[in-house]
């Protein structure tokens, strides 16, 4: 097979540096000795540059994929005139072995990532003024009172809060390594916490984690041993498992840093959440993040936002979902007034100021989607399908079989796809997808014959992936890859539209169009919509939304709609009439709860510790 004789032990030298482009570059009729950059496609970890001689559009071309991150590249020969950087694959192997994660994070982490999770002494610092502050004051007072009733012996030592989020664009691509564009909601999860009396432990008492919820009818009180090494019981989907994930994450992070975790410490905990559950706005991640920073602060520790974002992403996987890092990153790194472009490897965030004339309305389809419960057939299945698509592409594009096993995501092979496209006068990785992945579903046997690998053996390290293999009959590789690559480009098209300098009306029209395209891709290629979401999107568009799409994992949950800011009240009333009224009449929801199911939101601030 092509490329099987490649080696990384004696790599050829990298191509010579490219000349800086100039504004007076000669056109295509100039001397044959001139070279130009036909395609300069910046991707997340590497830059793909396709160089073509101006006098030869068909034969004399060379393609190089050059790493732009974390030091030297590893070059291997691919074909006669192409060099492929396999640095990403080898670096991925190092990350999984834990060899280079922290040093790389320090090099790439921006100032915002280095900031510690903030600590405030007043609710005004978090909730501002007006009705939001009044609501927060009453809520925290009730939380304090219930904590004292449950646990006695004084008040909570501190509170933590972490917001939910709405993803504006970039669905199901964070776990593939691609950037996303969410904003934080004002809706948050608050954790009140207090360390248990040390004398109790000294007297022979086993420290415990007592975890209660203000809504104890829906979320009964749970207790766990204060042992960070304990497993999370994936088969028992109790709500407090999310607190346990955050608790474990703090100690796992300490261990990874080589710090002493000390003797077991018990905690009394009370949780109050107003992030809609199972609605695609990250109620689970808000609980994991608020739990992690509560434990962190109660132990007298301080970690950066980036640190918490990264370990919270990892520790939430104890619940059984192979999630990406978007939810945790925006919950920790959000700033009021701006959305965030979230990049990964490592996690970092940059501001995206949205047009003032636009507003985002979030509406709940009332169909609950619980990722952890249906992971094997839905969320985790998509993660596995994407990995298999990436591996098949790697083989078809000539990657050596000894490297294919280490391919994890579609971003791992985008460089190969771009090189393939560049040789065919294109800059789209979708060209390789259409050429090398057939549209019909793949069987496990067909994939194994292509990869020359046993899928159970390949996935042996991941119990959740093995569950997918046991449940799935077919794998839709073409459609999943098509969605990921096209959605990744829509994220930057969205960001570029905001920064284009065009009129606000033109910008909002473009943003709405991109949101509509995203929803169509989620529905048709990723198959993560449902009848209720489709009905709600249709109602939004019929009532003047510039764009509307499902947000979150899908299969239920919420829709986010872009509307003119001046029409928000009338738009919300239209949704209440055309979508929610029939649900009220049927008794599915109460009219007095409508504001919990449909609301407008501005970008809000991120996680914080409160010592009141």
Automatic annotation (TrEMBL):
Domain named GHMP kinase C-terminal: residues: 508-577
Compositionally skewed regions (Basic residues) per UniProt: 90-109
Biased amino acid composition, Pro residues: 10-20
Domain GHMP kinase N-terminal: 249-333
GO MF term set: ATP binding; galactokinase activity
Protein name: Galactokinase
Keyword set, alphabetical order: ATP-binding, Nucleotide-binding
GO biological process: galactose metabolic process
CC per GO annotation: cytosol
Galactokinase N-terminal domain sequence ranges: 145-195
Classification via Pfam families: GalKase_gal_bdg (PF10509), GHMP_kinases_C (PF08544), GHMP_kinases_N (PF00288)
Annotated stretches, region: Disordered: 1-35, 90-113
Family in the record: Belongs to the GHMP kinase family. GalK subfamily.
SUPFAM superfamilies assigned to the protein according to its UniProt record, in alphabetical order: GHMP Kinase, C-terminal domain, Ribosomal protein S5 domain 2-like
